[in-house]
Amino acid sequence: MLDDFSNFMVFQLKDSGERERLYITEPEFSQDNGSRFLHDSQVLIIVKENIRRIFIWKGYQSTVRKKFIASRVANDLQQELTNLANFHRCKIVSIDQGEEPFEFLNTFGIKSYDVPEKPKVKIPQISASSSHKKEPKAASINYYRNQTYSKLKSSKQKLYKSQIELLDKILQYDLPKGYKRNHILLGDNDLYGIVVKKTEILGKKIEESKWEQYKKLPKEVIELNGHKLRIHFNKDLNTIEAIEVLEKLSIEKKEEESESKIDYNKWTVKQLKAYCAKNNIKVPSSYRKAQIVNLVEEFNES
Asked: Which of residues 107 and 221 earns the better pLDDT score?
C-alpha cells in the first residue's frame, strides 16, 4: 500500500514481481535523456496523473517474466490509486524501448534510443522440384510475423510522420458556415490553439497568428457553451486522429456596426451645413434638408 501519493511517480519492477518506488522528481527522471533510469534491462511503471496515464516502459533486454507481470502490477497500481488516493482512472500504456510513442517522448521531453536490430532468421529455400510440401518451421513462421509487424509499423509511421503534418491536414478542411476553429485535439491529449504574436520590423508592427501546442493545461473541468465538435477518423488505422472544437461566430459586431451608423435625418439643417462646410461639401442654396442629407451620406460612402 502506498503511504504517500503525487502526480508523478516512478516504480521499478524487481525480478520477484514486486514494485519498488523510486523517490525522484520529474526533472531528475528526464535529465540526460532519461539515461539514469531507462536502462536496457529495466522495466519501469511511470504514473503521470495530470494526463491520466500509467506508462509501462520495458527495456529491450529485460526478462520475459518482468515484461509478463508488468501489466498485472500496473493494473493493481491503477486500482490502488483510484480507490485510496482518489486519483483519476489512468489509462495504462505499454511501451517497448526504441518504440516510444510521441505522447511519451513529448511528455517528458526526451528522445527515443536506437535499439540494436535482432538478427534476421534465414528461411530455408524449398526446391521447386520437391514432390511434396514441407510444414513451415517455427522460425519461419516467426520471421513472417515479424515482417508483417514491421510493415504495419512502417505504414503507421508513414501516416503519422509528424504532428505538424497531421495538424496541416486538419486545417485544410473547410469550416461550417458561421463557425470558426477554437482548438484542435490531436491523438490522445495534444491540444493546439491559435497563438497571436506581435513583432515590430523596421518600425512596422506585424501581428502573426500561428497554431501551437499548449504546454500547460488547466487541471479543472471546462464546459464549452455554443460550441460543436468535429471528429476526424482514420479508416486505415481504425482510430480517431483529431477532434476540432468549433465556436459559433458572434453577431454582436454586426449589431454594433448597425447601431453606430449615424442617422443624419435627426440632425438640424444648421448642423448639416456646418458639417458640409467643414468637409468642403458644396451645398446649393436651393437644397432642402433631405437633399443635404443625401449629399452627406454620399460623401461618407465614397
From this structure: 107
CATH number of 40's domain:
3.40.20.10
Residue found under cell 482548438: 183
Mean pLDDT, all residues of the chain = 79
Question: Could you report the per-residue pLDDT of 90-104, keeping only the tens digit for each?
Answer: 999 999 999 999 999
Task: Name, in order, each residue with C-beta under 8 angstroms of 149's C-beta and a sequence gap of 6 or more.
Answer: none
Q: What are the residues facing 297 on neighbouring strands?
A: none
Residues 40 and 81 in one domain: yes
* Mean local confidence (pLDDT), 67-96: 88
Please list the residues that pair with 192 across neighbouring strands: 184, 213
Q: Please name the residues in contact with 25: beta carbons below 8 A apart, sequence gap of 6 or more.
A: 8
272: CB partners within 8 A, 6+ apart: 264, 289, 292, 293, 296
Asked whether residue 128 is domain-assigned, the answer is no
DSSP state of 97: T
Please provide the DSSP assignment of 118-183 as one string.
PPPPPPPPPPTT-SSPPPPPHHHHHHHHHHHHHHHHHHHHHHTS-HHHHHHHHHTSPPPTTEEEEE
